[in-house]
Every structure is written in structure tokens, then in C-alpha cells.
Amino acid sequence: MAGRLAVVGAGLMGSGIAQVAAQAGWRVSMRDVDDAALARGMAGIERSLNKFVEKQKVSEPDAATALGRIATTTDLGVVSEADIVVEAVFEQVEIKQRVFMELDRLAADGAVLATNTSAIPITTIASVTKRPEYVVGTHFFSPVPMMALVELVRGYQTSDETMARATAFAEEIGKTVVTVNRDIAGFVTTRLICALAMEAARLVENGVISAADLDTACKLGFGHAMGPLATTDLTGVDVLVHATENIYADSKDPKFAPPESLLRMVAAGHLGRKSRQGFYSYE
């Protein structure tokens, strides 16, 4: 099936999607708004491939070939050449809708238009296009080259053909697909981690248990590889709060209302690993 892929957004997720697709034989055009963003994205791909080479999981020639399959550009018009377009821009509905209005105008007839979102309803994004049947959610997990899962989400008008093509694409680039058949905010995996993380934060906020003991309970009691608060630090406290607020705005379910302590952490800049302080210190 390998064909032409356009990835819109060269950040952590976009560059990861570009890398795994290129390794699977796809010709990839990675687009961002400026050359600096593209240079950062390509540097990240090179570092990732070099690590695979060092661990002897990828040969040097194969890594070089994968890099050679990726072209970078600031011209969004490149999406007109793609069989599949994956949008991987900032997780904000207005930004994604602006991108999809342009994709609707520029992409080839019949192209699959995929959005890499963890919480925003696919139907809301597809509503700004004249071809909602071609819009699908492809929720990749970070870091994309390491994580095997893709959550494939059907929007209200997504066609069976689009679902089949998106599934084939994800499987061809080495991912295991779980299908979400109804378009609800947060889908399945984000709803689960947000509900668990919000309740975990409330228990710590109320003095019931320490963050470390709560994470230990989840690891040893439930077999989780990482506790929900350590996961929050890894993901980014602000990222998880934003995702949870998106779910709450759509569902009005009180379990998705972020507790006050998480909002204060974000306001204080305690965002987890990336700021070296969250539920744990990373100095």
C-alpha cells in the first residue's frame, strides 16, 4: 500500500509519524510554518534513528534510506500530492479547524484526512470540511517510534472505506489498531487516563495518600508500568489538564473537572518532566 503521506506539523508527534511511515516505505512530505520548526523535527528524527542503529534495531543503510524518503516544506500545497494527510498540530480545536479548512481546499479528491488528536471530537474537526466522510481520527501515542498503539476514531460521518484505508495505513507502518466506533470527546484511552489521573490528583490534594504511594499502589496492585501521576508528569500536567478540560466541556461529566491543585500547578509552571517539577522533582 505504501504511497505518499503528508504530515502537517513537525513537532514531537508529527516528526514521529513521519519517521515510522518513512521506515515503512512511504514517501513523506513534512510541513510546518517555518524552517526552524522543520529543522528541529528532522533533527529529532535523526536522533531517533541513530538510537535504533546504536541498539542494532535498524541498519545504517535502512536509517539513511528512511531519512531520504522525508522531504520538508513550508508550503501547505504539498498535501495535494498525498494519498493520506495526517494533521499533527497543537491540540486546540480552533487551530485544527483552520488547518482542515485548508486541507479541504488543497488535498486531492479522495485523500484520507486524518487528525492526530487525543481528545477533540472528530466530527467537530470534520464539520468545517465539505468531505467529512474522508475525515478520521488517528490517535498516535508518544514517542511514536516506540509506542505500538493507534486509536482509530470514527467521526459521525466517517465512511467505512476511510476507516479501512486508515486501518491499513496504521498497520502497514507497524501499529496495532483499536477502533473507537462512536465519536466521544477523549475517545477511550484519554478518557481512561484522565479519569484515573483526576481522581488520583484529588486523593493527593485531600491528603488521603502521597503521590509516590498512589503510583506504587497502581503499579503493584494493577500491574501498571507507570502510576497515573508519574504519567501526568511525563505527558505534561498542562497537556493532561487541557485534554481533560476538552472532555469536560463536551460531556459536562464532573469526574473530568480538573481539581484545583492541578490548575494551580499549571499556573505555577510545574508542568512535570519538561519543567523539572510536577508531582515529582526532576532536578
Automatic annotation (TrEMBL):
<dbReference type="InterPro" id="IPR013328">
    <property type="entry name" value="6PGD_dom2"/>
</dbReference>
<feature type="binding site">
    <location>
        <position position="48"/>
    </location>
    <ligand>
        <name>CoA</name>
    </ligand>
</feature>
<dbReference type="GO" id="GO:0070403">
    <property type="term" value="F:NAD+ binding"/>
</dbReference>
<feature type="binding site">
    <location>
        <position position="55"/>
    </location>
    <ligand>
        <name>CoA</name>
    </ligand>
</feature>
<dbReference type="InterPro" id="IPR006176">
    <property type="entry name" value="3-OHacyl-CoA_DH_NAD-bd"/>
</dbReference>
<feature type="domain" description="3-hydroxyacyl-CoA dehydrogenase C-terminal">
    <location>
        <begin position="186"/>
        <end position="282"/>
    </location>
</feature>
<feature type="site" description="Important for catalytic activity">
    <location>
        <position position="139"/>
    </location>
</feature>
<dbReference type="GO" id="GO:0006635">
    <property type="term" value="P:fatty acid beta-oxidation"/>
</dbReference>
<comment type="pathway">
    <text>Lipid metabolism; butanoate metabolism.</text>
</comment>
<protein>
    <submittedName>
        <fullName>3-hydroxybutyryl-CoA dehydrogenase</fullName>
    </submittedName>
</protein>
<feature type="binding site">
    <location>
        <position position="118"/>
    </location>
    <ligand>
        <name>CoA</name>
    </ligand>
</feature>
<feature type="domain" description="3-hydroxyacyl-CoA dehydrogenase NAD binding">
    <location>
        <begin position="5"/>
        <end position="183"/>
    </location>
</feature>
<keyword id="KW-0560">Oxidoreductase</keyword>
<dbReference type="InterPro" id="IPR036291">
    <property type="entry name" value="NAD(P)-bd_dom_sf"/>
</dbReference>
<dbReference type="GO" id="GO:0008691">
    <property type="term" value="F:3-hydroxybutyryl-CoA dehydrogenase activity"/>
</dbReference>
<dbReference type="Pfam" id="PF02737">
    <property type="entry name" value="3HCDH_N"/>
</dbReference>
<dbReference type="InterPro" id="IPR006108">
    <property type="entry name" value="3HC_DH_C"/>
</dbReference>
<dbReference type="InterPro" id="IPR008927">
    <property type="entry name" value="6-PGluconate_DH-like_C_sf"/>
</dbReference>
<dbReference type="InterPro" id="IPR022694">
    <property type="entry name" value="3-OHacyl-CoA_DH"/>
</dbReference>
<dbReference type="Pfam" id="PF00725">
    <property type="entry name" value="3HCDH"/>
</dbReference>
<comment type="similarity">
    <text>Belongs to the 3-hydroxyacyl-CoA dehydrogenase family.</text>
</comment>
